[in-house]
Design brief:
- Strands 1, 2, 3, 4, 5, 6, 7, 8, 9, 10, 11, 12 and 13 form a 13-stranded mixed beta sheet that branches.
- The radius of gyration is 26 Å and the shape is globular.
- 25% of the residues lie in helices and 33% in strands.
- The chain has two domains: 2-38 and 239-269; 43-232, Immunoglobulin-like (Sandwich).
- It is α+β, with helices and mostly antiparallel strands and 270 residues long.
- Helix 1 (2-40) runs antiparallel to helix 2.
- It has helices at 2-40, 242-269, and strands at residues 43-48, 71-73, 77-85, 90-98, 109-115, 128-134, 138-144, 149-152, 160-168, 171-183, 195-202, 213-214, 227-232.
């Protein structure tokens, strides 16, 4: 009787230990997922380029941008970015797709704002840069002066860009696509290891849509509201999703319970 009672105590202890470990794993996964969700609206990552894209305003090949992390604004806009060590500069490259903009209007615009030293502020600072593309053809640089944006004459080597009304692997209906690249450590627009940014797009044919913006709710004139752009070495990871990890953790608990229950029955029958 003593041996049997001791065996049952051991089994219960093992069961409790497995349940506790599984619960802790699930808790860690949950906390990590919550943190990702909280940061997603204002933080993202550029991974190292695996396929160097052609800056022509379209997907030149189906795998041209699949090495970049996709960030979306609803089902309206999607964008990706990568970086690499070039011969002279570190380059960062971007593709932005405006799925619902399928018309060519002079009043359309795309704004992209950069805070290379992450100084923030309640107004555009010196060293904060912005470019605007109007009507899909006109490109203008701006720099903050501590109060407002002022137009800035920069050399054409500061950025290479192209736009086109094209289909893509992510949307078969032709829509506006912007591609551009900027040297991170050369020229006037200096970008740090991490930097803050925001961008917005506007389609005058669909004015009710407003101006979809990343991060959502941010203000072009308030750098403190912009998002964070991180840069990581290596290829974008192909990790398990939160849902899959939860299922695996739950399955571990169920399997452990079934195995221990069967073992307990065998001990009792013996």
């Amino acid at each position: 009787m003593k041996n049997k009672s001791g065996g049952e105590k051991v089994m219960k202890k093992k069961f409790c230990t497995i349940i506790m470990v599984a619960f802790m794993m699930l808790l860690l996964v949950t906390v990590g997922a919550i943190n990702c969700v909280r940061a997603q609206a204002a933080e993202r990552t550029s991974w190292q380029t695996q396929v160097i894209p052609t800056i022509d305003g379209e997907w030149t090949s189906d795998d041209e941008w699949t090495d970049g992390e996709e960030t979306t604004i609803g089902n309206v806009v999607a964008f990706r970015s990568t970086w690499d060590m070039g011969d002279e500069y570190v380059m960062t490259r971007w593709i932005i797709e405006f799925f619902t903009d399928t018309t060519n209007d002079l009043a359309d615009f795309w704004d992209f704002c950069i805070d290379g030293d992450q100084s923030g502020g309640s107004a555009p600072q010196v060293g904060d840069f912005r470019f605007r593309i109007s009507g899909h053809t006109e490109f203008v640089w701006y720099e903050g002066d501590g109060t407002v944006w002022t137009e800035k004459d920069l050399d054409e080597t500061e950025i290479e860009w192209a736009m086109s009304l094209s289909e893509s692997p992510t949307e078969s209906t032709p829509h506006w696509i912007l591609e551009f690249q900027i040297p991170k450590n050369g020229g006037t627009v200096q970008l740090g290891p991490t930097w803050n940014l925001m961008f917005r797009v506007y389609d005058s044919s669909n004015a009710l849509l407003g101006a979809p913006t990343w991060p959502e709710g941010s203000d072009m004139d308030v750098p403190d509201s912009w998002g964070i752009e991180n840069f990581e070495m290596g290829a974008i990871p192909e990790g398990l999703s939160f849902g899959v990890l939860v299922l695996l953790s739950s399955a571990a608990v169920i399997v452990a319970a079934v195995v221990l229950r069967k073992r307990s029955r065998l001990d009792k029958s013996s």
